[in-house]
Design goal:
Layout (H helix, E strand, L loop, with lengths): L5 E2 L4 E3 L6 H8 L2 H4 L13 H7 L1 H7 L2 E8 L2 E9 L16 E8 L8 H16 L4 E3 L1 E3 L3 H9 L4 E9 L4 E8 L2 E2 H7 L2
Parallel strand pairs: 5-6
Antiparallel strand pairs: 1-2, 2-3, 3-4, 4-5, 6-10, 7-9, 8-9
Helix pairs in contact: 1-3
The structure holds coenzyme A.
Length: 192
């Protein structure tokens, strides 16, 4: 399971490899990607992509984080990851920390608007429920991230409140929209 590749209609979700480092730096280093996340720094330091990737194997082994490279025709187009709540960004209250994971994602700007986030996230949600045996998923987005919110709502997530959280890239606290924990039933009802 640690090296699992998930295939969807157009995409393959696979573990990151060292050679993905420069593409990670290019896409995550884009201001319009970094500024919508809590943790991605801006500017993105040279070499930080490879260092980030080098930490993945241990994170998968200890179950704290399952990051997937989202690829289309063997080209890296983005990232979708499942974090345990200690590594998470949004800090919602959940029924049980152990059976809940947080969904995080970005798509490189050249690939926006093609439905890749929708397709990759659907696969990651299924992985969380079917392979990791989780019962709930949480997610959130900055209040001005209408695009991310739209994709979350397409997958059955419902708004559950808001809070201020730090954006590393913006260097300030930003208002966030928090999503209530998504259950398998709510996901199945909305499946896209
Ligand atoms: C958010 C993000 C992942 C979306 O990726 P994407 O592959 O372009 O998304 P998709 O094409 O699957 O879907 C986008 C949906 O949002 C809709 N959308 C786009 N811009 C929108 C806007 N300003 N307001 C509302 N909906 C919008 C699209 O119409 C589409 O919905 P539809 O399929 O019903 O038409 C991408 O823009 C990104 O990486 N942004 C920066 C990082 C980020 O925000 N990460 C998430 C942190 S919470």
């Amino acid at each position: 399971m640690l090296d699992l590749t998930i295939k969807t209609e157009r995409l393959a979700l696979r573990p990151f490899r060292p050679h993905d480092g420069p593409a990670v730096e290019k896409f995550a280093g884009d201001w319009d990607v970094a500024r919508m996340t809590t943790k991605i720094p801006h500017p993105y330091p040279a070499g930080a992509g490879q260092a980030w990737i080098a930490a993945h194997a241990a994170a998968r082994r200890d179950g704290s984080n399952y990051p997937f490279a989202v690829t289309c025709e063997n080209e890296l187009v983005g990232c979708v990851g499942l974090n345990n709540l200690e590594r998470g960004s949004w800090g919602q209250r959940v029924p049980d920390d152990r059976t809940t994971v947080e969904l995080g994602y970005w798509i490189g700007r050249p690939f926006w608007g093609r439905g890749f986030a929708t397709e990759a996230r659907a696969a990651a949600i299924e992985f969380a429920f079917d392979w990791l045996g989780k019962t709930h998923l949480v997610a959130g987005c900055f209040k001005d991230n209408a695009c991310s919110r739209r994709v979350l709502e397409k997958h059955g997530f419902a708004v559950d409140g808001s809070r201020m959280l730090r954006s590393a890239a913006q260097g300030r606290d930003v208002e966030c929209t928090l999503m209530a924990p998504l259950t398998r039933d709510a996901w199945a009802a909305k499946k896209v």
